[in-house]
Amino acid sequence: IPVHNASCWLDECLQGIEDQDYTGSMELSVYDDASTDGSRAIVEGWRERLERRGVSMVISGHDSAQPRGVGHAKNQAVSQSSGKYLCFQDADDVMMPQRIHLQYETCLFNSTSLIGCQVRRDPEGSTERYTRWINNISQDQLSTQVYTSHGPTVIMPTWFCSRDWFQRVGTFDEGGKGVPEDLLWFYQSVGQGGGVVRVDQCLLVYRYHQQAATHSVLEETIWNLRVAFLQERVINQWESFTIWNAGKQGRKLYRCLSSSNQKKVRAFCDVDENKINKGFYTYEESKERPKPQIPVLHYRDASPPYIICVKLDMTGGVFEENLKSLHLEEGVDYYHFN
């Protein structure tokens, strides 16, 4: 557990650890990243209870003027720990009693995978679309939907993996505030052939609040990382493809591609008659003469593979039905980017 000014959440968080029904040996490794609200004393206050429960504790930290960031705190918590398996927990979340034993059992059969779980959002109803996505995408989509704006397909506060796999992938980025250290590590793991598996039970209460570190990461930072990963893993291997969405998001993706990948875009496709009737999109910022003009087609007249830049779960099922009508295979004929 990385901790920074989490005093109001810690008792519930630590109670969740005491309540685990896992019967093997457990260790709690906490790194306090310059808290000024007495967080460390709260954790220390739990030592006796947790050790009585058979959970050994390692606590360290620093009290410099500035926190060093979530990546640093997680790395320190991992390096001072000794377990063969790592269960990541945020100080503001609460694990359900079955979490460790169910993820541990799953990890035994998936030693080079990142194991996640389903979550319950608190307060209920916050980030509804995101929560539905976390809990309901299929096991196959955990690997194919890694490029969307939602980030890792199993969310960081639910991560469980073997120490061997963590060490093979490497430590978290320590760039500090504004760095999406979880997304970077997730991409590293997937890039090295790591699997992604979800235990299909709700094993974590996942809190939403304004102080969460995730709010400090700029959307543009994440966009650039996603575009780079999509090109490296998918588009560089394709000879040509279609961008599904001739609107703002589709055009932005096109402009952000390398020039060699821009040349692979055979068309945009859409359902908007105005865009289709216009006939093409002109890349005005291009230094080429004449400026590239990319055809805009109706989605039924376009051909796969597609990079889809349409937001999921936003059109009352209309977009999803259109896609389904084409009988395509996700991860082969198309990838979601939004």
Question: Any overview of this molecule?
Answer:
The chain is α/β, with parallel strands linked by helices and 338 residues long. Helices cover 35% and strands 22% of the residues. It contains 14 helices and 14 strands. It has helices at 7-18, 39-45, 47-52, 70-79, 99-108, 128-136, 141-144, 163-169, 181-191, 219-233, 248-256, 259-262, 273-278, 318-324, and strands at 2-3, 26-33, 55-62, 85-87, 94-95, 113-122, 160-162, 195-207, 241-244, 265-270, 280-282, 293-298, 306-308, 334-336. The strands form four sheets. Strands 11-12-10-9-13-14 form a six-stranded mixed β-sheet. The protein has a three-stranded parallel β-sheet with strand order 1-2-3. Strand 1, helix 1 and strand 2 (26-33) form a beta-alpha-beta unit. Helix 1 packs parallel to helix 2 and helix 9 (181-191) packs parallel to helix 10 (219-233). The longest helix has 15 residues, at 219-233. It is elongated and about 70 Å long. The two termini are 31 Å apart. It holds the Pfam family Glycos_transf_2. It comes from Oncorhynchus mykiss (Rainbow trout).
What keywords describe this structure?
338 residues; alpha/beta; three-stranded parallel beta sheet; elongated
Question: Brief overview, please?
Answer:
The protein has 338 residues and is of the alpha/beta class. The protein contains 14 helices and 14 strands.
Give the strand order of the largest sheet, numbering strands 1, 2, ... along the chain.
11-12-10-9-13-14
SSE arrangement, N to C: EHEHHEHEEHEHHEHHEHEHHEHEEEHE
Which residues sit in consecutive blocks of at least 5 with pLDDT less than 50?
none
What average pLDDT do the residues reach? 95
Tell me the distance between the termini.
31 Å
The count of strands amounts to 14
